[in-house]
């Protein structure tokens, strides 16, 4: 009898773990776009310090990120338990914020004065070379800014995860949200550490001396890594921005029944086109999500800009 009860218990545990693994996989896919932006933003945030201090700064930000999760995860689970009806509106607000953030990046790229960015970069280089500048304070400022940004992006990911696991029991929600939070921290800051040291690895390989074909190949690989590092940062920024429109717009499409019906009807009509119809129908929901994200981001940015101007502050 006891043996049978134990087998039933083990079977229940296995079923719960299987559900948790499945929903964690689904949540990871849903949050991948925000993770890409999180990775790009944090890699950018921790650059600009001395090469020998890059990894300690990444580690300090990673610890701050874990503290953020210790605040956000319980808070999100409490809301899910006592007021699950708030998850839908929170998702829509999160989607609007993603769209706004993506559109703000585009606006900043095309409409802001590039000379200010160049001047800021030159000042940063001069500060690093100036022995009179307090580098500890400079590093702490970078760390604080990165942790603050991580808090916002982490909140987005946890809200998205809660939307995925809304139908699970509370224990399942705890396990999935906690796993996603931990995996996110390990992945993002492990990747950031690799990215910020990529150029250093290239320089190390380039400095290898000696004759021979193999050493020549190694130096060539190092040179390629040095060239590739800044391009990777730019690629991550672009992919992250597009993904923000895709995810944010997708949340809005699914959050508003009328929008969802329009997209479904459009997809169905396009699917009737001969030969290319099925392929275009496959792309249509994603393209519609991106379009909705762009429009929503533009509207929110316009509202925020007007609000700042009315208050007499910079947007």
Number of domains: 1
Low-confidence stretches: 6-13
The helical percent reads over 70%
Total helix count? Answer: 10
Q: What multimeric state do the chains show?
A: single chain
Task: Give the strand tally.
Answer: 0
Characterize the overall form: globular
Mean pLDDT: 76
Strand % is under 5%
**Main β-sheet description:** none
What would you call the structural class? mainly alpha
| H/E element order | HHHHHHHHHH
How widely separated are the two ends?
69 Å
- Give the C-alpha Rg: 23 Å
Q: Helix and strand layout, with pairings?
A:
Layout: H1 2-45, H2 54-82, H3 87-111, H4 114-129, H5 135-164, H6 170-196, H7 198-206, H8 213-255, H9 257-271, H10 277-311
Helix pairs in contact: 1-5, 1-6, 1-8, 2-5, 2-6, 3-5, 3-8, 3-10, 5-6, 7-8, 8-9, 8-10, 9-10
Give descriptors for this structure.
single chain; 315 residues; mainly alpha; 10 helices; 87% helix; 0% strand
Characterization of the model:
The protein is mostly helical and 315 residues long. The protein has one domain (2-311). The chain is built from ten helices and no strands.
Please sum up the structure shown:
The protein has 10 helices and no strands. It has 315 residues and is an all-alpha fold.
């Amino acid at each position: 009898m006891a043996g049978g009860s134990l087998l039933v218990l083990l079977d229940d545990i296995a079923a719960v773990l299987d559900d948790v693994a499945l929903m964690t996989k689904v949540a990871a896919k849903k949050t991948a776009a925000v993770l890409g932006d999180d990775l790009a933003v944090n890699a950018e945030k921790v650059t600009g310090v001395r090469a020998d201090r890059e990894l300690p700064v990444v580690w300090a930000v990673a610890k701050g990120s874990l503290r953020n999760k210790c605040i956000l995860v319980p808070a999100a689970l409490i809301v899910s338990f006592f007021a699950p009806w708030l998850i839908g509106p929170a998702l829509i607000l999160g989607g609007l914020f993603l769209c706004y953030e993506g559109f703000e990046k585009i606006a900043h790229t095309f409409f802001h004065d590039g000379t200010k960015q160049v001047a800021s970069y030159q000042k940063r280089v001069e500060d690093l070379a100036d022995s009179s500048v307090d580098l500890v304070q400079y590093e702490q400022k970078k760390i604080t800014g990165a942790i603050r940004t991580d808090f916002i992006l982490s909140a987005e990911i946890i809200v998205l995860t809660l939307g995925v696991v809304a139908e699970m029991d509370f224990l399942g929600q705890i396990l999935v949200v906690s796993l996603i939070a931990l995996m996110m921290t390990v992945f993002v800051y492990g990747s950031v550490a690799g990215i910020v040291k990529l150029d250093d690895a290239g320089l190390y390989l380039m400095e290898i001396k000696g004759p021979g074909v193999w050493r020549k190949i190694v130096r060539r690989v190092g040179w390629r890594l040095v060239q590739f590092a800044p391009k990777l940062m730019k690629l991550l920024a672009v992919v992250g921005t597009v993904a923000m429109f895709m995810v944010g717009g997708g949340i809005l499409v699914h959050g508003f029944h009328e929008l969802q019906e329009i997209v479904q009807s459009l997809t169905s009509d396009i699917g009737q086109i001969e030969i290319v119809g099925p392929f275009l129908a496959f792309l249509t929901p994603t393209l519609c999500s991106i379009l909705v994200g762009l429009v929503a981001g533009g509207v929110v940015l316009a509202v925020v800009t007007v609000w700042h101007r009315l208050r007499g502050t910079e947007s």
